[in-house]
């Protein structure tokens, strides 16, 4: 190779490295390297939808085929967003994967030192992991998340390490978790892409599927007080075939919803991040419908799928932060 050609190649390499470094300098909230993935092949337009796919107002969104893991629609899917209580999908997955769900957990005083939403756990109270998981996923109780994390890993910090390791194993490498509940922390973030992968893994667990498809659950405290719990995910009641998953809200995250639907043996998972309360329902309905049509459900079968009143839309959501 002559000197001129060698010098040209060297200059090109230097410029490439310079651009890469500059790109990293303007990244926000990224303390960890971001894996740049080739874009997933997106399915062709579904009947009744624009060529670009469903109209989604959420800042970030995704819908994937549960069976194959193929993404059917994405919007800003690698953009960092705060997950709020959808964090608890990963928390529940780790607890369920650890097994021994009838093991008794004793509440520690540290578990109770957390912002609502809560089930008002008291130090010394005892619950099984199984019961706590219902409180985690239906009530979105942050004190329950603390108790489960400590029971699983010894401390919240150690549990967060396990969360990040498991997320990475699932391919969710553009996320970082620092707590089991999703209360706001600038270093606690995910993406629509990653959250869809985490939700898909969770839905492979039969007990997780039971949890997130449960609409009502009776929570009985050791002192005999009974709390009727209702799942915050209104799509379970108002979207035919919905079988999960998890709502979320903080001021920074705004409204968040991971949802799933199963029809005719075909299942899809939808994620919407950073939107308003009507948006989580409308966007999710549109994404689930689009996804199910893409995987082979008849468009005609969605003619009677509708929401209830605007009042219903405004009143239901994730009261937990």
Describe the structure.
The structure is a single chain. This protein has a single domain (42-315), classed as Beta-lactamase, CATH 3.40.710. 37% of the residues lie in helices and 17% in strands. It is built from ten helices and nine strands. The protein is globular, with a radius of gyration of 21 Å.
* Share in helix: 25-40%
In total, the number of strands is: 9
Portion in strands? 15-25%
The profile of the biggest β sheet is:
5 strands, antiparallel
Going across the major beta sheet, what is the strand order? Answer: 2-1-9-8-7
SSE class = alpha+beta
The CATH topology: Beta-lactamase
CATH superfamily: DD-peptidase/beta-lactamase superfamily
Round the mean pLDDT to the nearest integer and report it: 85
Shape: globular
CATH class: Alpha Beta
Supply the number of helical segments.
Answer: 10
In the CATH hierarchy, the architecture is 3-Layer(aba) Sandwich
- The unreliable regions are 2-41, 307-321
How many independent structural domains?
1
Summarize the structure.
This protein is α+β, with helices and mostly antiparallel strands. It is built from ten helices and nine strands. The protein has one domain (42-315): DD-peptidase/beta-lactamase superfamily (Beta-lactamase), CATH 3.40.710.10.
What tags apply to this protein structure?
single chain, 321 residues, alpha+beta, Beta-lactamase, five-stranded antiparallel sheet, globular, disordered C terminus
């Amino acid at each position: 190779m002559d000197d001129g050609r060698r010098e040209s190649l060297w200059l090109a390499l230097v410029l490439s490295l310079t651009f890469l470094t500059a790109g990293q300098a303007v990244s926000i909230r990224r303390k960890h390297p971001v894996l740049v993935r080739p874009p997933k092949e997106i399915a062709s337009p579904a009947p009744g939808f624009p060529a670009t796919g469903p109209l989604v107002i959420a800042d970030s969104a995704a819908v994937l085929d549960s069976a194959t893991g193929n993404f059917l629609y994405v919007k800003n899917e690698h953009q960092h967003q705060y997950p709020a209580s959808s964090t608890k999908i990963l928390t529940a997955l780790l607890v369920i994967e650890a097994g021994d769900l009838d093991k008794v957990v004793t509440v520690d005083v540290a578990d109770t030192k957390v912002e609502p939403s809560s089930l008002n756990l008291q130090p010394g109270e005892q619950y099984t992991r199984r019961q706590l998981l219902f409180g985690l996923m239906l009530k979105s109780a942050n004190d329950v998340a603390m108790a489960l994390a400590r029971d699983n890993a010894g401390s919240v910090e150690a549990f967060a390490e396990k969360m990040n390791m498991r997320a990475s194993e699932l391919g969710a490498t553009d996320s970082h978790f620092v707590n089991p509940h999703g209360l706001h922390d600038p270093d606690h973030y995910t993406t629509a892409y990653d959250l869809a992968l985490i939700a898909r893994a969770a839905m492979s667990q039969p007990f997780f599927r039971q949890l997130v498809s449960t609409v009502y659950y009776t929570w009985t405290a050791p002192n005999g007080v009974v709390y009727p719990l209702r799942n915050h995910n209104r799509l379970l009641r108002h979207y035919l075939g919905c079988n999960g998953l998890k709502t979320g809200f903080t001021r920074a995250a705004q409204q968040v919803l991971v949802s799933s639907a199963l029809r005719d043996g075909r299942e899809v998972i939808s994620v919407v991040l950073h939107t308003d309360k009507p948006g989580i329902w409308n966007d999710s309905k549109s994404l689930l419908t689009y996804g199910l049509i893409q995987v082979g459900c008849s468009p005609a079968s969605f003619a009677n799928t509708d929401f209830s009143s605007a009042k219903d839309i405004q009143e239901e959501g994730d009261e937990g932060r």
